[in-house]
């Protein structure tokens, strides 16, 4: 399917508007739904170093899942804008006591100077937000390309090795098909408040 930029912008605007329109109760129910779908997955149970994110712009909230990770003794990280490499991310340790400061987009993130950081390839599991997705693991983000650049090594190696990438979303963000560009890094799977779309079902339980 060939999608012209105008159609892609329209889809992004539509999805962002729809998720921002959700009430607090709807967002809370969706967040709990995602946690409950993930908590018994083998790829989650085996992961020790897990990256999550702080929700923005109506993104589904991984907060309940984050608290579960802490309870289970897992190491939690947040994405931080790389200070040198353009549009790339580092992953910095995050605990309830972590001091935060806003980045250039106004999103709180841990300080690079005061907290341990971990390279992208060394993460076990990275759960990231998205604007739209399809069941084949293709993701539309906000357009900055941060995750695609950060995990571009997966395309060079042509394998799913390294960090497993799981998109988190509201079920209504699923579309029939998304256009794929050569630089798009496919996800291991997507989990929503209503369903799971895992590319390798044998690795889930």
**Strand numbers in spatial order across the main sheet:** 6-3-2-1-7-10-11-12
- Report the mean per-residue pLDDT as an integer: 87
Ranges where pLDDT stays below 50 over 5 or more residues in a row are 201-205
Number of helices: 6
Order of helices and strands: HHHEHEEEEEEEEHHEEE
What portion of the residues fall into strands of 2 or more residues? Answer: 15-25%
Please sum up the structure shown.
The protein is α/β, with parallel strands linked by helices and 205 residues long. It has six helices and twelve strands. It starts with a helix and ends in a 7-residue tail after the last strand.
Describe the structure.
By secondary structure, the protein is an alpha/beta fold. It has a single domain (5-203), classed as Rossmann fold, CATH 3.40.50. The protein has helices at residues 5-20, 24-38, 42-45, 63-71, 146-150, 153-157; strands at 49-51, 75-81, 89-93, 100-102, 108-110, 117-118, 125-129, 132-133, 139-140, 164-169, 189-192, 196-198. The strands form three sheets. Strands 6-3-2-1-7-10-11-12 form an eight-stranded mixed β-sheet. A two-stranded antiparallel ribbon has the order 4-5. It has a two-stranded antiparallel ribbon with strand order 8-9. A hairpin with a 3-residue loop joins strand 11 and strand 12. The radius of gyration is 16 Å and the shape is globular.
